[in-house]
Amino acid sequence: MSDLKGALPEYYDNVIEMNALMDAEQGTYNERDLYINNFLYNLFVKTADSDGLSLFEKEYQIRVEKGSSLETRRYNVLLRMLPPHPITFNYFKELLSSFDIPVRLDEDCVNELFTAIDDNNVINSDQIKRLWYLMNKMLPVNLAKKILKVENQKSTYRETIGAKAISNVSNVSLAQLVTEKDSKLSLHLGTNDYRSESVVSKMKGSD
């Protein structure tokens, strides 16, 4: 917020009456400034507060679930406002990136399967819901859709000479690079369906 005294000419610096007047008006100015800024912020979904998002939700007839966070409501509005666009693989990747959904995409045309893989196990339940919405809305209906969350596996190696340990090395490897007994993928087959499955894979460089 602006300081009214800072906008005064220098010759008012020692004028008691003018400085007192500015002090009296500063509070009212701050309230008006805050009101105008909030009004401008609420014109855009990215900067709107709860009241501003409520207007967009009413306009697009979006039903808000109880307990939804402000960011979830914001992304729900943005999803409804997406303009018509040819859906290509590259465009879909860019779209997920703009919605802060860091997943790797894999398309199996032979088996008609589209998979989104979270290699770093970082996406949360809200991001999964947004991802499902985008996949169901934009991808062909004949494609089976799947989301995989890959759990990281940690192993520790200990080097010794005689009875004395000289170093400890911790190594974190992605689950898809380790053997079946050490590997687990969290599989989502729907918004309300969640289970874990083992994945058959081999270490890089193995036969």
Uncertain ranges: 155-207
The total count of strands amounts to 7
**Order of strands, widest sheet:** 1-2-3-6-7
Q: Share of helix among residues?
A: 25-40%
Series of H and E elements: HHHHEEHEEEEE
**Number of helices, counting only DSSP H or I runs of 4 residues or more:** 5
Q: Mean of the pLDDT scores?
A: 74
Counted up, domains total 2
Oligomer: single chain
How far apart, in Å, are the first and last alpha carbons?
A: 66 Å
**Rg of Cα set:** 27 Å
- The coarse overall form would be elongated
Relative strand content:
15-25%
Polypeptide structure, described:
It is a single chain. The protein has 207 residues and is of the alpha+beta class. It has 2 domains: 4-41, no CATH class; 88-197, no CATH class. Helices cover 34% and strands 23% of the residues. It is built from 5 helices and 7 strands, in the order ααααββαβββββ. It has helices spanning 16-41, 50-59, 70-80, 89-98, 125-138; strands spanning 104-108, 113-118, 144-150, 153-161, 164-173, 185-190, 193-197. The chain has a 5-stranded mixed β-sheet with strand order 1-2-3-6-7, covered by helices on one side. Strands 4-5 form a two-stranded antiparallel ribbon.
Outline the secondary-structure elements.
Layout (H helix, E strand, L loop, with lengths): L15 H26 L8 H10 L10 H11 L8 H10 L5 E5 L4 E6 L6 H14 L5 E7 L2 E9 L2 E10 L11 E6 L2 E5 L10
Parallel strand pairs: 2-3
Antiparallel strand pairs: 1-2, 3-6, 4-5, 6-7
Helix pairs in contact: 2-3
